[in-house]
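Subject: sequence -> structure tokens, single chain

Hey, anyone have a minute? Need the predicted structure for the following. Not urgent.
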Amino acid sequence: MAPTTSTPSAPASPVQPHVLSLRAQAGRASLHADLSISTSGLWAVAGLVSGILLSTAVIVAVATRKLPDDTLPPRLRRG
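Reply:
Had a minute. Here:
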């Protein structure tokens, strides 16, 4: 059996974080914010936001649907 040799693999390139810098000023009030997030963190935030938007759409659809007249109890009927 021949000895196996392995060549060292090249080191993985470091993952660069996504960076956001915000500066805003209105009159004497000012705001300065810095944000740094990894790619996986960005995907997690995107998943949470899309879940919130989808569930909100379902709630609005259910709340605004028109029910047949005979499905409501008499005390909740209009008129």
